[in-house]
Write a structure and sequence with these properties.
alpha/beta, Rossmann fold, 5 helices, disordered C terminus
Length: 225
Amino acid sequence: MPEPSVEDGLLYDNYYRAALPLALQYFGVEVLHASAVRTRLGVVAFCAVSETGKSTAVAVLSRRGYPLWADDAVPIEIDEGTRDARALAVPFRLRLDAALSSAFGDPDRSFRWPEPERLDLASAPLAALCVMQRVDSSQTAEICRLSAIDAVTALLPHSYCFSLMEADRKRLMMRCYIELAARVPTSQCRLQRAWKGCPRRSTKSKERFPDSHSRSLHRLDSRGN
């Protein structure tokens, strides 16, 4: 039982941010440690270790017209009929440090935690994945498209995993991430620690981030809505 002095909001936040993602993964739904926004073509998720800037990235994008979709946990499913990847939405409260909260305000100020009852998770097409990485000032900041093989290697460290002891569950997990990498465009974004500008786009990739006002420049399936 929680201490009586613990605020309800903190309990809800930790449940949806940590406990629920692990429970979902245990019961067969893969979950990425990522924050996300929604575009006209679907959800774009930013994977990263803590304090890399994924929450900051979606906060900035939300101010440019992209609705927030997730912060810290993005459950993923592969549609059994179409085999398309979809992102599920769990309740969340965007977590920013004090300085950024002061600068950005509260992008989801109208948010209310759901009532404690059966939770139906909304879903949307997963349009793109971006793996964020901090590099020192001696390295170049850039965004480059990953091959399917490199995408699997890059995504797995950002996956929630309840246990690796069950061979069958681990096999299903690997199968999901292999299929995910094959179906969803995945890029790596290297940001300098003293970042003061937009990383250059690698010459290895001609794709661009899908925006909320134009058709996909990421060559994504136009069936996303």
